[in-house]
Give the backbone structure.
Amino acid sequence: MISHVLAAAPAGGSNPTLASFYGQPWWMIVLKVVVLFVFLMLTTLFMIWAERRVIGRMQQRPGPNRAGPFGLLQSLLDGIKLALKEDIVPRGVDKLLFWLAPAISAIPALISFSVIPFGPEVSIFGVHTPLQVADLPVAVLLVLAMSSMGVYGIVLAGWASSSPYSLLGGLRSSAQVISYEIAMGLSFVAVFLYSGSLSTTAIVNAQANGAQFHLFGVILHWPSWFAVLLLPSFLIYLVTMVGETNRLPFDLPEGEGELVGGFHTEYSSLKFAIFYLAEYVNMTTVAGLATTLFLGGWRAPWPISVWSGSNAGWWPLLWFLAKVGILLFCFIWLRGTLPRIRYDQLMKLGWKVLIPVSLAWIMMIATIRVWRSQGGSVPVYIVGGAILAALLALAWAGDMASERRRVAREGPADDEEMEGGQSPSGAPSFPVPPLDLPHYHGIGVAAGVAGSLAGRDGAAAGIGGRPAGPAASDSVKEVTGA
Amino acid sequence: MLTLYVPILMLAALAALFAGFSLVMGALAGPKRWNRAKLQAYESGIEPTPQPSGGGRFPVKYYLTAMLFILFDIEIIFLYPWAVTFRSLGVFGLVEMVLFIVTVLVAYAYVWRRGGLEWD
């Protein structure tokens, strides 16, 4: 029965193209939309549970393990509990925006997952359809647009709350997200150079097969994942996807030590839960996008891909979920491992490292490809590498110069503090108490301390020795009945 | 062409329905107990800072970041069509794009040199 309902499409038609998305029956669209929605909800619940469990393991404690098997129901019950909590709307908030902001951050988060392909064409109830809700000629652009829309939710939540923590958290968060979005957008360009399309199905198809080569009479393929071909782009994307989702080590918008909860400090009940949902759906989306653009999408990883049936039927769903799962685990791993970085370091990394490196890398890739299409050969790699190195050196020199100017202007104030340098008198500037303080050696004060102890609780009188003053001796008399 | 957008719009409608339902449910299901302190902005237990009506002030630095973002985002938007049609444009496209990126890099270098990318 199941095998009839969910049969694999014939091998010939298993590679979907943009054309496969036309003429789907309406009930199929509804089915896929609802399944995707439920999938995202379950992923969020599962991710929160997995995060708490894994972080727990990393910190030598069990994590939530009471509600249901392995504590699996914990996040669901937390959600229900949040729904039963009071929905506080503080005085002075902008009511309309305060209510709208959670929706504005959650809806785009949910939409952007619709263009992520889960698998090739399969047959559901006898209808051949791609395992993907929608695809567009500009699918990746849709994801970028939606992640920009999500920023509105954050900044409006911070602004409408009328609280300094929320305002600062919202501003920091939006500044961080838009800064990292530039590097993120640039890291995609190299992928589009290779795939020649913004459609996610086309990008997955472009990673199907690497160029063939012969080794001892066996036909082998070069790796075809863009993560291998375009490693710098992939690395840049990995950094930006953590920055985009405001996760550790880039979680300054909600740095608990300074801003409490950041932009959602004033939110409670289900509004708070919706922000949480948006955050975790965004994590899943960026992981799914990384899988699609760089890790071959739903295609089987190398040793498995030798088996010809690995990319047909429902197997690709497994590969896709495994890849996304590994990336999501890395998110948790980062959170369990790394400390939070400083805000100026964050912005410096985004603006002064990721953007110039991305631009230089794109130019290098483009030059190489043009060169090879014109019949050029290997030396171009050396030239390209030299150009890249020159650009990086230029950027570095510029930064050094500006740092020197800053130091010359303001004086090396913080360097002295950091290194604990000597103050003019020769004593260490760090507040170390002098070593000849009387109480350090127990001389002179010991009796006084003992006396006051005796005065306070009497019981120590026998041990305390001679009382230090008349008041103390009086109280001793009282207690002992003398 | 536009039929490709139908599933996305349906998902958007479902998401909006869900968000709206949750917002209303959260307001209806929970208890309502009035308390003066509860309605004040949370500032870790100290008296809340009085906020000017119409939003607080914030460092102008964030405006600068937002404007730089627009500059670079537009650059990216120009890079995408070029990347997609890269093969047919060939050497001409490459030279054009290098000229364009150099132009943007001038602005970038200017901002960098003037300290627009410094945070403290």
Remarks:
- Residues 86-113 of chain B form the longest helix (28 residues).
- Residues 2-113 of chain B form a domain with the Methane Monooxygenase Hydroxylase; Chain G, domain 1 fold (CATH 1.20.58).
- The CA atoms of residues 82 and 93 of chain B lie 7 Å apart.
